Amino acid sequence: MNFEKALDLLLVHCQGEIGKVIISGAPDIPGATILEKMNHINQVDDSLRRFVTSELRAHVAMTTNLLLPACDPRADAGFIVLQPDRAHPMSGSNAICVVAALLESGRVKMVEPETTLRLDTAAGLVDRAGAL
Questions:
Q1: Out of 24, 91, 93, 105, which one is annotated catalytic?
Q2: What does the pLDDT read at residue 3?
Q3: pTM for the complete prediction?
Q4: Is 93 among the residues known to form the active site?
Q5: Beta-bridge partners for 17
Q6: What is the mean pLDDT of residues 61-76?
Q7: For residue 43, with 0-12 CB atoms within 10 Å meaning exposed, 13-18 middle and 19 or more buried, which class applies?
Q8: Nearest by Cα to 90 from 106, 104, 105, 75
Q9: DSSP string, 40-55
Q10: Separation CA 110–CA 79 (nearest Å)
Q11: Contacts 24+ apart (CB under 8 A), 43-48
């Protein structure tokens, strides 16, 4: 897999657990759904996952989240959890990291008094109440 010379990552956390979020520079991942994209990473080409989860850039207890355009039209964004062993379909703490990155970077506008954000994941559509 070839990707640009630079990846843009935001460093965020969920109750102290570090979660990086790739916000740009990643290559296009083939697949019509986030599940198909995750399966491509796990079964065909895991070079991006290995690049962002291996030392010197990371360590065994650290996760990097790949921010993607949503495949589901009901979602604001999609993401895949990249860990040293493989790509995973969903993680609550990583979803919190992705939401923080989307809101704090201005990629999704905060709306008072409450912002509702939906995420497209390999496990399905997730909103503030959990999986739909």
A1: 91
A2: 55
A3: 0.89
A4: no
A5: 14
A6: 93
A7: exposed
A8: 75
A9: HHHHT--HHHHHHHST
A10: 19
A11: 45/1, 46/86, 46/87, 47/1, 48/1, 48/3, 48/82
